[in-house]
Amino acid sequence: MDKLKIALQYIMPKHLLSRLVGKLAAAELGAVTTSVIKWFITQYKIDMSEAADSAPEAYASFNQFFTRALKPGIRPLCDDDEYIVHPVDGAVSQCGPIKEGRIFQAKGHEYSSLALLGDQADDAKRFEAGDFATIYLAPKDYHRIHMPIKGTLSKMTYVPGELFSVNPLTAANVPGLFARNERVVAIFETEIGPMAMVLVGATIVASIETVWAGTVTPPTGKKVFTWDYPTEGPEAITLDKGEEMGRFKLGSTVVMLFAKDALEHFADGVEPKAVTRMGQAFAKID
Predict the structure, then answer these.
(1) In the chain, which ranges are E strands?
(2) What are the residue ranges of helices labelled H in 126-183?
(3) 146 catalytic, yes or no?
(4) Catalytic pick from 18, 61, 86, 89?
(5) Fewer Cβ atoms within 10 Å of its own Cβ: the N or the C terminal residue of the chain?
(6) Of these residues, 18, 113, 207, 252, which one is catalytic?
(7) Catalytic annotation present for 89
């Protein structure tokens, strides 16, 4: 059955399906939308007591529900300045060192940081011998993405690609998954050096948003797009630790890259399959 699930992903029209679902998720269909939201809450056992607005009827579209805000203070930030924090609710897929430009995906699979970053060689060099962490967001999770550490945006890259599912089964069976799926790469300058936040698209992920550019995907065509940003002056985009930087309209994965010697070690309990909660200690800085 698992082999069949993987095989179907290679042949199904993933982009067409994803764009269609995206249109439906954005539609405001009244009672129909509310019914779908109620079904989703039950199906995935979502804890709506954490939401700023717990009533399914409060959301005009499925996208509004899926990117719902949490109650203030429900995810307190680790107040230890020696630690960066988890950027999302989810589960650790993998974490560890970047070895000779390679990132571990799952048993038997790895991929290059160069490919992940859209073949931007200068960017990849900045993370040589650094560290990475991959966090998977399940459908039940909170889908806003926050800053692990204060940073100033220096570059964004949109990389077109496939739209395979990014669940654990697919990660274990599709080579180079995160470097072949559609993605948005945001590079920030921080007190511990450069940090890349790679927002990976997936099947039925309708779009990826950032707080500075709005909806980044899907543009048309297969071209890689890059945008450079000033890191000083009134137009610089600086986001504080814990501040929202983006969101997924339907779930996906975040891959973070850090420079050599930026991190001393990951926090206790940060390991594959570990549940993450935005704001909790993620790694101690060097």
Answers:
(1) 83-85, 90-97, 102-106, 109-112, 131-136, 144-146, 151-159, 183-190, 193-200, 207-210, 214-215, 225-228, 238-239, 244-249, 253-258, 263-266, 275-276, 281-285
(2) 168-171, 177-180
(3) yes
(4) 89
(5) N
(6) 252
(7) yes
Instruction: Assess whether 109 carries a catalytic annotation.
Output: no
Taking a C-beta distance cutoff of 8 angstroms, is the pair 278, 243 a contact?
A: no
| Other beta carbons within 10 Å of 90 | 26
Burial of residue 68, with CB atoms counted within 10 A of its CB: 0-12 exposed, 13-18 middle, 19 or more buried: buried
To the question of pTM greater than 0.85 for the whole model, the response is yes
Pairing of strands 83-85, 90-97: unpaired
DSSP, collapsed to helix, strand or coil, labels residue 15 as: helix
